[in-house]
Design brief:
Helix content: under 10%
Number of domains: 2
Largest sheet: 6 strands, antiparallel
Number of helices: 2
CATH architecture of the largest domain: Sandwich
CATH topology of the largest domain: Jelly Rolls
């Protein structure tokens, strides 16, 4: 009788573990169509000038809907713009990680060569789920981020963070869930427990934008499972309380004062831009 009970218990445990499968179809970016660089001969080692179409044709079950030149798939170790030894740390899961890049570019206006405007560019991706989430069901999301190691010849290794959400559309950020802390050069894990509201089908990720000119963050190993754990409270809101106003510009891109009349653009450190019309 004890043996039968033990077998039954083991069967139930095995079934329980199996049921907690990862609902993110390609959360570690291992499912991809290899690209061999004609110059370096390396597989899946892009530079940061790869267009969005390359990403969407290479990484399965994921869509890049950010700005051009803001995502890179790395096979680690990988020869980048610096010696391979600086990029030789293994991925958190498998062989690949994704680098999301953010930029605050200074653009010269054609009609006003003496003036420049800040153009915020962000890497934004969605990760397809196995099926639409069950309505009002509780789920646990885990993911990992890190900064690229410090390098002498590249400028996009500066501290960075990401915003993670849940969406019904592959090209929209949807409902915000969590904002990570600024990245570190060692892998950091984040966990967030939430309830669904609209039977969402995608996890969304966007890189943050701070006051640096050019920077990136590695992301890897997104896992979504059903759970009965308590909901996460007191999440870190970098893009809420701590965002900074970078600049106020007018329609021509000239820096303006807050009280100036007309259409003004408020550019913030989290990548958002507010349009305000000042009448009086």
């Amino acid at each position: 009788m004890k043996r039968i009970s033990l077998i039954t218990l083991l069967f139930c445990c095995a079934f329980s573990v199996k049921a907690q499968q990862n609902l993110v179809l390609n959360g570690s970016f291992e499912l991809n169509n290899p690209i061999v660089d004609s110059i370096t001969g390396l597989v899946n080692c892009w530079n940061d000038f790869s267009p969005i179409a390359d990403y969407n044709n290479t990484i399965f079950y994921s869509t890049h809907f950010g700005d051009d030149n803001t995502s890179t798939l790395w096979k680690i170790p990988c020869l980048a713009c610096t010696p391979q030894t600086l990029w030789g740390e293994i991925a958190k899961d498998g062989d690949h990680v994704l680098s999301l890049i953010g930029r605050d570019e200074l653009v010269i206006l054609p009609w006003a060569p003496d003036d420049t405007i800040h153009l915020i560019k962000q890497g934004k991706i969605s990760l397809t789920l196995d099926a639409p989430l069950l309505n009002t069901k509780r789920y646990r999301l885990n993911f990992w981020i890190k900064d690229p190691p410090p390098e002498p010849n590249c400028i996009y290794q500066k501290n960075n963070y990401i915003n993670v959400g849940i969406s019904n559309y592959e090209d929209q950020l949807g409902r915000h869930l969590i904002t990570s802390n600024y990245g570190n050069t060692i892998w950091q894990e984040y966990t967030y427990v939430f309830e669904t509201q609209m039977e969402e089908e995608y996890i969304t990720v966007t890189v943050g934008v701070n006051d640096t000119i050019d920077y990136a963050v590695f992301i890897d190993h997104f896992v979504l499972t059903e759970t009965e754990e308590p909901l996460t409270t007191g999440i870190n809101e970098l893009n809420g309380n701590n965002r900074k106003l970078l600049k106020i510009v007018d329609l021509l891109g000239k820096e303006s004062k807050p009280k100036q009349k007309g259409l003004l653009f408020y550019i913030y450190s989290d990548g958002t831009v507010e349009k305000r019309i000042i009448i009086e």
